[in-house]
From TrEMBL:
Name of the protein: Perilipin 2
Signal sequence range: none
Record keywords: Lipid droplet
Species whose genome carries this gene: Saimiri boliviensis boliviensis (Bolivian squirrel monkey)
UniProt similarity note: Belongs to the perilipin family.
CC annotations in GO: cytosol; lipid droplet
Annotated InterPro entries: Perilipin
Keyword Cell inner membrane carried by entry: no
Compartments reported by the entry: Lipid droplet
Any one biological process term the GO annotation gives: lipid storage
Length: 126
């Protein structure tokens, strides 16, 4: 008898990163960062040194934390499940999360998010 593979629930971090508002904002900021580094050579060298330091620190931290993360894997899975449910509710109540930042900007330029959400039939409360 063939076994059926069950796909694990996606990580809440992966889901957040893949939200159109988040991913498009990241793309815009990343592009601005790269363009700024290209325009200012001195700033570029400082940024590259900082990037190298962050990569080194991250690598050491991950190596050190890996045994703890492995021990806490069941608890992390439970927390991920609850976080995904919370994200589901946020996506229902804030459909702006599923729009790229260029579209969402029309609401934010209004400077009154509550009014903008009400005009579009969405409410922050309840």
């Amino acid at each position: 008898m063939a076994s059926v593979a069950v796909d694990p629930q996606p990580s809440v971090v992966t889901r957040v990163v893949n939200l159109p508002l988040v991913s498009s904002t990241y793309d815009l900021m990343s592009s601005a960062y790269v363009n700024t580094k290209d325009q200012y050579p001195y700033l570029k060298s400082v940024c590259e040194m900082a990037e190298k330091g962050v990569k080194t620190i991250t690598s050491v931290a991950l190596t050190s934390a890996l045994p703890i993360i492995q021990k806490l894997e069941p608890q992390i899975a439970i927390a991920n499940t609850y976080a995904c449910k919370g994200l589901d509710r946020m996506e229902e109540r804030l459909p702006i999360l599923n729009q790229p930042s260029t579209q969402a900007n029309t609401c934010f330029s209004n400077l009154d998010l509550d009014v903008c959400l009400k005009e579009n039939g969405h409410f922050l409360t309840s």
